Amino acid sequence: MISMAIHSHHPDARLVTPAQASEWLNAGWRDVWRNPVLSLGFGALYAGIGMGLFLVLNALEMGSLLFPLAAGFMLVGPLAAVFFYEISRRHETGEPVGLGQVIGGVSSRLDQIGNMGLVLSILLMAWLLAGLVVFALFYPPGMPLPLGNFLEDVVLRPGSFRFLAAGTLVGGVLAVIAFSISVFAMPMLLDRDVGVIEAMEFSVHAVRVNWRTMIGWAATIAVLTFFGMATAFVGMVVALPVIGHASWHAYRDVMGEC
Which pTM was predicted? Predict the structure, then answer.
């Protein structure tokens, strides 16, 4: 049975400005090179998984599934970034930053991180199911297409705009939900002894009071992730660590000393 501690109060979020996003990215870049083997190692691991999945889907002539899966990765991104958060947290506190210490730090909060991961996984499953429904509505056979055929069909097919609009609408709604509940919740679970509900409440509150800045920050994350994937996942080796470390610094600015 999943245990989620419920609290009626969460810390107040500090206001942050769009200009601070560049500071977060700079801080994230510095954190990457403070321990490049560890940060880039995790980045290479995730990039390798992405490339492997792409090759498998291509071999099965199901390359069109790459797009919903790539969008799905955005939903669970904060879970994948948990090791980068822990590395940055340890740099900040002066604790040892080695592979064992980082894994140990994450493991010490594995119960609540796992609960948060379950919430994000449910959203991911909802997105994949919705994506299959949208695909089936616009492609009668209901079978995923090879990537080349899919791209050609999207460009040339008369009804492709409605297909893209439907997919974007459904994915956008789920992305807003996932981003709002997790962007600050996952770092908070590592930083403080709180439950998932309290962490999600704080994250939603922080996004709400900083919604203009968060729109830009979400777009920045999306662009960097797209760049990483568009370079045959090679760019993900660097993009993911920078995003992960930068997101920690975004959390610290929003949390402050409260």
Answer: 0.89
